Amino acid sequence: MALTGLFLVIFLVVHLSGNLQLLLDDDGKAFNVYARFMTSNPLIKTTSFILYASFLIHIIWAVILTINNKKARPVGYAKTKPSANSTWSSRNMGFLGTIVFIFLVIHLKNFWYVMHWGPITSVNYDGQEYRNLFATVEAVFSQWWYVALYVVSMIGLMFHLYHGFSSAFQTLGLNHVKYNPAIKFVGVAFAIIVPAMFAAIPIIIFLKTL
């Protein structure tokens, strides 16, 4: 869980850097060029299989751990004030993970599936033909319900990261009294900034299409 989680954190940074190109005022050229590179570069394509495996392992292992925890303790602990020993996000990682998983399925259907097998128009840059994935993104983000779903899902991701980031370091034994405050600070900053930037992209594109 910790290793795949940290790998997916790196993926979020890379994915965000690509998505930010959607906001450039160039009619989608930078994003379309970027998308072509990401889908044609052999190293990137190989890494994508590791990414798919990481998603599956992270999800499957979460289910296994949840089942094992319930088997180990079929009767709940005596109720105490929850905030005394844990955060809300740590107590609801399963719920938050489910929100992110549902969003991921819908997101892959609207973009990843369409990118590989859906009808996509083409555009010409400097004599070369590119698939106009920017137009696909713009069409999806012009729907208010999907933008709302995206924003809610990013809030879920924020709370999921809030606990998961620092917890991964602790699981791997990389926590230390001296460095824990810095790890906590970076984790909280990452959990807020990255999902917020992801959420801002569909909002901005939606407002432009009004």
Compact summary:
α1 (2-19) packs across α3 (42-72).
Based on Cα principal axes, name the global outline: elongated
CATH topology: 3 helical TM bundles of succinate and fumarate reductases
Distance between the termini: 42 Å
Radius of gyration: 20 Å
Q: Provide a count of the helices.
A: 8
GO cellular component, one term: membrane
Organism: Fulvivirga imtechensis AK7
Keywords: Membrane, Transmembrane, Transmembrane helix
Transmembrane segments: 49-67, 88-108, 144-165, 185-207
Description:
This protein has 210 residues and is mainly alpha-helical. It has a single domain (2-209), classed as 3 helical TM bundles of succinate and fumarate reductases (Up-down Bundle), CATH 1.20.1300.10. 74% of the residues lie in helices and 4% in strands. It has helices at 2-19, 29-40, 42-72, 88-91, 93-117, 133-140, 144-171, 180-209, and strands spanning 122-125, 128-131. A two-stranded antiparallel sheet has the order 1-2. Strand 1 and strand 2 (128-131) form a beta hairpin. The radius of gyration is 20 Å and the shape is elongated. It starts with a helix and ends with a helix. The model has no long low-confidence stretch (mean pLDDT 88). This is Succinate dehydrogenase cytochrome b subunit. Keywords: Membrane, Transmembrane, Transmembrane helix. The chain crosses the membrane at residues 49-67, 88-108, 144-165, 185-207.
